[in-house]
Amino acid sequence: MTGHSHPRRVYTYPRHVRVLLNFFSEQMAATNETVLTKIAEAFNELADDVNSPSTPPRLSLIKFCSACRLLSPLIGCMGIACRFADIEFSAKVDELTTASESIDTIEALIDLDIAHNTGKNSWSNSRNLIRANRTVDLLRIMFEQILAQRGNFLTGPGLTAYEQVFAPYHSMAMKTAVRAVALTIPTKARVLRKLNENDMFMFDYRTNFQLIHLLVRFSEASASVQIQKFVIASSAVIQYIKDLFHSTEYGDELLGMI
User: Fold this and answer.
1) Are 103 and 129 in contact (CB under 8 A)?
2) Mind listing the pLDDT tens digit for each residue in 231-252?
3) What is the residue-averaged pLDDT of the chain?
4) Terminus of the chain with fewer CB atoms < 10 Å: N or C?
5) 64: Cβ contacts below 8 Å, ≥ 6 apart
6) Is the separation of the CB atoms in 230 and 37 below 8 Å?
7) Alpha-carbon distance 204 to 127, whole Å?
8) Contact yes or no for 65/95 (Cβ under 8 A)
9) Ranges for the Glycolipid transfer protein domain (predicted)?
10) How far, in Å, CA of 43 to CA of 233, rounded?
11) Distance of alpha carbon 207 from alpha carbon 210, whole angstroms
């Protein structure tokens, strides 16, 4: 008996699904442009300044503050677990922004505190800078972990970042509280949906779970590219600021304070 070859069936989504996919992928890309892309671009600019061939490089304080300010909506998407961190981070950035009215660069900010012997004060610009830089580092490590794993849960990456950045400065009671509240961090899909919230998305997704899954995949792919850029760029900025403190008279002591 002669066998018959059958043409391989190529599955295509129904037309209404393809139309919706095209529409929402465009809207998601546009929304990501206002959040993740702007964050990546802002830190790329800072990294370029840090890696500038000029000797020595100069890091603009107001540019650093502006880049940090872009992170606030991202932290807010992490739910109640990061609500306090967002408030404190925003307060430190606000104080640094005020300082930028009279201080041009981060190098000058540190030099002034060292010269006036005010760096160790709890309200000093140097202490505010260190705390803001730690929050950026927290997000960098968290996103690094997210990119390295395929899961949908962010509690693990969030706790890993916390243990490396803030836990060494916290009491046992504080560590226990943070570990408990970390369980409320939303899933990766929910965070991406929050980043992509738009009035045009107001229709009932529940009738097409396949469509939801595809939209989340579109969003994840777009977000991952920008997150990777942020991770690389912020690493250079974070380390540069740490090195500035290490090079000062009592910078190591400042970095060891909460």
Assistant:
1) no
2) 999 999 999 999 999 999 888 8
3) 81
4) N
5) 46, 96, 106, 237
6) no
7) 47
8) no
9) 61-197
10) 6
11) 9
